[in-house]
Amino acid sequence: FIQAKGYPSSTNVEVINDGAESAMFKQLFQRWTEKDETQGLGKVYTTGKIAKVEQVKFDTTQLHARPELAAEQRMVDDASGEIEVWRIEDLEMRLVDPKTYGQFYGGDCYLVLYTYLRSGRPHYVLYMWQGHHASVDEITACALNAIELDKRYGDEAVQV
User: Fold this and answer.
1) Which residues fall in a coiled-coil region (predicted)?
2) 77/45: higher pLDDT
3) What is the CATH number of domain 79-159?
4) What pLDDT shows up at residue 49?
């Protein structure tokens, strides 16, 4: 594959089974759709079914002890940094209550700023989450607000 594509021999290739993609993998794609996903503030397209969710414990304290785990998950650090989340409402950024962090709706767009320290200096990762059913206006506003947020931090944020 690497030779056929003309990539350098140092290129990493990772095999992921269909349907077993991790959240870290899915975040690399702008438009990832899931079966039975919700739209807006929780409108579900299936009825009469209860999701069976397998709880998998992920111990972030192991990221320092096992750097290969951090590398595998594409983590920039041990996840001890600060998180701020904004939802795009009326084309403007509105802070999200930390109690609802991790809840994203298919009809909305979000900006997530992760700040961490490396060598005593802050670094930033700015995630843009665009819901599958978000309007073109919201997606555009999300991108424009991401640019403004990046400028606020000296154009040093890595945008994902």
Assistant:
1) none
2) 77
3) 3.40.20.10
4) 58
Nearest to residue 43, comparing CAs of 129, 132, 117, 152?
132
User: Between the CA atoms of 42, 113, 157 and 31, what dihedral angle is there, to the nearest 10 degrees?
Assistant: -10
The sheet carrying 82-89 orders its strands as 92-95, 82-89, 109-118, 121-130, 157-159
pLDDT computed for residue 70 by the predictor: 57
Give tens-digit pLDDT for 95-123: 999 998 888 888 999 999 999 888 888 88
Residue pair 135/103 in contact (Cβ under 8 Å)? The answer is no
Q: Report CA Rg, the chain.
A: 18
Task: Give the tens place of pLDDT for each residue, 12-42.
Answer: 777 777 777 777 777 777 777 776 666 555 5
Give domain limits for the chain.
79-159
Check: pTM over 0.85? Answer yes or no: no
First to last CA, the chain: 26
- The three-state DSSP-derived secondary structure of 91-136 is CEEEECCHHHCCCCCCCCEEEEEEEEEECCEEEEEEEEEECCCCCH
Q: How many residues appear in the chain?
A: 160
